[in-house]
Amino acid sequence: MTRQDELKKAAAAAAVERLESGMVVGLGTGSTARFALERISELIRNGRLKNIVGIPSSLRTETEARELGIPLTGFESHTSIDVTIDGADEVDPELNLIKGGGGALLREKVLAQASRRNIIIVDESKLSERLGTRWALPVEVVPFARAVEEHFLKSIGATVALRAPNGRAVATDQGNLLLDARFGPMGDPGRLAQQLSGRAGIVEHGLFVGLAHELFVAGTDGIRHLKRGA
Ligand code: 5RP
Fold first, then answer.
1. Residue whose CA is at the smallest distance from ligand 1 atom 6
2. Which of 77, 100, 169, 175 could form a disulfide with 138 if both were Cys (CB 3.0 to 4.6 A apart)?
3. Are residues 71 and 25 part of one domain?
4. Are residues 25 and 119 in the same domain?
């Protein structure tokens, strides 16, 4: 395991400590969230967590959770989530986030908006004074609108790349495309989020503004626990 993986695992374990038996838990997507799934599975197996049900934020997480024996449910049965634990690509000092590196931003945002508490878990490499400094913003677009939304994103200052590793476009769990829009350091992520949400061809974007309640950051000095607005 790399040092970064050890940090991700430590942040995940600290967040999972906040879960209680009987909770409906939102299950994030990505390598850090995977460590949280493994820890939840461990606590279910050793009896410390009872009657937990999870709502996965992607088909990938659904598969992983099933393999790990985490009981799953859906919004048909539970319209709200007690706690969601998820990773992030970039986190600013107000706990605003860029997410979607794993392509699951739409379902992740649905979970975040349905959750009473959102706990974000990262290693310290994800911290950033301004969102956009390190990471392009993932934008999910319907295939029909790809060219027009790419043009729009460029017109507001982004350089844009279709996510297509090895030349094959990635399809999201909804069958849409992902545009990675590099804006550079953002002055006002909330305003940008509103601008993007106004576009019909943009299904969702990876700016999570005001959604994270708590953050566990693992670094060389140990684990820090931050709360939004504190
Ligand atoms: C997936 C996400 C992930 O949470 C984000 O990309 C962080 O991933 P990792 O924990 O693998 O670094 O938003 O859509």
1. 101
2. 100
3. yes
4. yes
Domain presence at residue 224: no
> Can you give the pLDDT at residue 104?
98
Atom of ligand 1 nearest to the CA of 8: 10
Atom of ligand 1 nearest to the CA of 126: 12
pLDDT at 229: 86
pLDDT interval class at 22 (50, 70, 90): very high
Tell me how far apart the terminal alpha carbons of the chain are, to the nearest angstrom.
33
Considering the domain boundaries, does residue 226 fall inside one?
A: no
Residue 225 lies in a domain: no
Residue partners of 147: CB distance under 8 A and separation at least 6:
none
Catalytic residue of the set 108, 140, 149, 214: 108
- Contact between 160 and 147 (Cβ < 8 Å): no
Looking at the structure, tell me whether residues 25 and 77 fall in a common domain.
yes
89 and 150 belong to one structural domain = no
- Confirm whether pTM is higher than 0.85: yes
Q: pLDDT per residue over 110-149, tens digit each? A: 999 999 999 999 999 999 999 999 999 999 999 999 999 9
**Cα 216 to ligand 1 centre (Å):** 14
Q: Looking at the structure, do residues 108 and 163 belong to the same domain, yes or no?
A: no
> Measured between alpha carbons, how far is 157 from 159 in angstroms, rounded to an integer?
7
On whether both 116 and 160 belong to a single domain, the answer is no
CA 30–ligand 1 middle distance (angstroms): 4
Ligand 1 lined by 104 (C-beta under 6 Å): yes
The total number of structural domains that make up the chain = 2
108 is catalytic: yes
